[in-house]
Amino acid sequence: MPVKVLEEWFNACSGCEISILNMGDALVEMLSELEFVHIPVLMDHKYYGQTGEGSQVEIPEADIAIVSGGIRNEEHKELLEEIRKKCKTLIALGSCATNGGIPALANMWTKDEALKNIYSTITTDSASPPDRVPAWLDRVFAVDEIVKVDIYIPGCPPHPKNIADALTAVLKGESWSLPERSVCDTCPTIREKKASSGTIKRSLENADFDPEKPIDQMRCLMEQGFICLGPVTRAGCRGDSDAPRCIKARIGCRGCFGPIRKGARPMVDMMGAWSSIGLNAQAVPDRRALLNRFIGAHNNLRPLPKR
Ligand code: SF4
Ligand code: SF4
Ligand code: SF4
Q: Which residue of 154, 199, 250, 288 shows the fewest CB atoms closer than 10 Å?
């Protein structure tokens, strides 16, 4: 009997669903074992009956639920709680679901401030969304702040290989998680434990590298003065490649895989990493947003107290 899978997107952009499709051959091989019973990004589904006649949300039972996106409004929360009741294994897919992702940058403001900022810039009619739109929660939540999560697949977007490995494990009745290592642990660049210059460079500048030479002959980007969050970011984006995804493109890690472990303090640790090689952490602009860019849930980003 096929394994029933449901997939739902909340405060999401659909990049996570594209990563599912990007599993390619691995997905095709798995399809004979899977039956997608709910996946609104691909198949229409009415939550309250075909004509909206129902009063309770309808989610089919499934063995595995995959959810992307953070929890921004009351509808997301209601759907997520129902999905948790209907599935055996819940997979949080992508940075938004695991750590809030980019949309959780809004957690730097109160709900009212964020609504005002957004609506006053996109409409002249009203400074708030219409009543028929589901109400916002006070902030953006990661999925595990609302319900129990069994498997975390971080990344913006998540790596298709990790999705394939996680699903394969679940199909075998096994658990799956990324190892608690940093992006630096999987990066082949040359490190000399000191910065080549004391200044922080803008990412618009080109890194110093020879395109004819392999990546293991390039100096570490952080030591070149670029902002690279590799020291405080969980490894897993390298896949079968010879370097982490952004480093391979010769740009610094932005931190999309989130903290190396639960309870880590990437902001403090990154300031320490800069200082340890002679870079002035105070010179990094907008550090609070930059170092929490993908992890604004779990109270990592909060409105600053009024002065
Ligand atoms: S994690 Fe990235 S790709 Fe996935 S929904 Fe969020 S923004 Fe989109
Ligand atoms: S700081 Fe960046 S470039 Fe340097 S080793 Fe770590 S991941 Fe690689
Ligand atoms: S290098 Fe960093 S930002 Fe780039 S994909 Fe990997 S974890 Fe994400």
A: 199
φ/ψ (deg, to 5) at 64: -125, 135
In short, whether 149's Cβ falls inside 6 Å of ligand 2 is no
pLDDT in tens, 177-209: 999 999 999 999 999 999 997 788 888 899 999
Backbone angles phi, psi at 25, to 5 degrees: -60, -40
To test the pocket of ligand 2, the residue of 181, 201, 221 to mutate (highest count of ligand atoms within 8 Å of its CB) is 221
Instruction: Mark whether 16 and 155 lie in a shared domain.
Output: yes
Contacts of 167 (CB under 8 A, 6+ apart): 30, 64
Q: How long is the chain?
A: 307
Of 101, 136, 171, the domain-final residue: 171
Residues 243 and 101 reside in one and the same domain:
no
Q: Closest ligand 2 atom, CA of 230?
A: 7
Residues 14, 155, single domain; the answer is: yes
The parent domain of residue 259 ranges over 180-298
pTM: 0.94
C-alpha–C-alpha distance, residues 45 and 248, integer Å: 40
Instruction: Domain count for the chain, please give it.
Output: 2
Q: How far is CA 156 from CA 10, 30, 82, 236, in A?
A: 15, 23, 25, 12
